[in-house]
Task: structure prediction
Amino acid sequence: MHRHRSSLGDLLHHIHVSGALSRAALAERMGVNRSTILAWTAELAGAGLVREEHPAGTTGAGRPSLVVVPESSRVWVLAFDVAVDRLVAARVGLGGRVLERREAARPRAGVDLDMVVRKLAELGRELVDPGSLCVGVGASYCGMIRPGDGMVRYGPEMGWVDQAFGAELSRALGIGLPVAVGNEAHLGAMAEYQRGAGVGVPDLIYLHGDVGVGGGILVGGKLLGGESGYGCEVGHMLVNPVDGRSCLCGSRGCLEAETGEYALLDAAGHDPGEFGRDAVRAVVREAADGDRVAAAAVAEIGDWLGIGVANLINLFNPGAVIFGGTLREVYAAVAPQVADRIAHHAMPVSRERAKLRVSALADDATLIGAADLGFAALLADPLEAASTRTTADLTVG
Ligand SMILES: [Zn+2]
Result:
């Protein structure tokens, strides 16, 4: 059995990240002949995972090559995103297409595990489609996650320490599937590499701004997890040891303390009661509109961001640095400061190939990364995963 397990998984992975592909394109990518692709496609189609169709726009003339397309509306995962000011649930189809989504605003203070799990489970259960195949559940969380069991070891922004988030969400959902949990910036990095601004760049750094700054560093297309999976905390890289702002982690002058939401809003003289993505974006807009205080605040943040990025370029020699979350808008406003710091502090041979880009997946980067966690079992062993999941498992009650 499963003679072609890894090959079937590889083929499905190509379709999942690239969308419809012809047999000829698949044969070329996988280095096998077209009749092999035909046989493998037949197995995947028999399991209801892909279908073949005529490419869009072809007419009846000649014999256009069929393309293999993912069964996006039939095969899906539940994806969750616990972000700083919102909770998101989505049904994401094979191929990475968001089929349906629900969002709830999240209060900044006083959010305990029960509240977050209860709300996410409620949103998720609304999305379950009993006539189709749910193959996994993935969640993105803004904190440090223990690999394997979805335990939040440390979530500074909510004050969570050792909270069994993955297990509790799985129990509350009640659809018989575990919940795979990842750090938001780690997931954003993988998502941008698979289908966003980092396609074709296996050595990249993704920086995710929310209340703080998260990081995901890919080396040869693999996440740099460190000894225990808690690596890439670039937000806590020390950039201002002399008179730095205090950081949620207990230190001072960390990159996120100098460039995060609080630093920007404070420098711009905004009311301490204002926070969130909209408040950050408002300051960036005010700066663009010529407000001098906002422009100075944005420039100050850009300067610290540039120092951080220059350090990262020296350390990792990345092919790209991608700015996501609120850093997407912030970077667009501070590109000159960042370029200046890189020119002064990053070594020429380290920086010469580093492209600076904004996230292509925008606010969905972390959600799409979470969905890919949910698809992992299917892509590892498509026939096994498709046969063990049945619609009967999804009777919500
Ligand atoms: Zn810190």
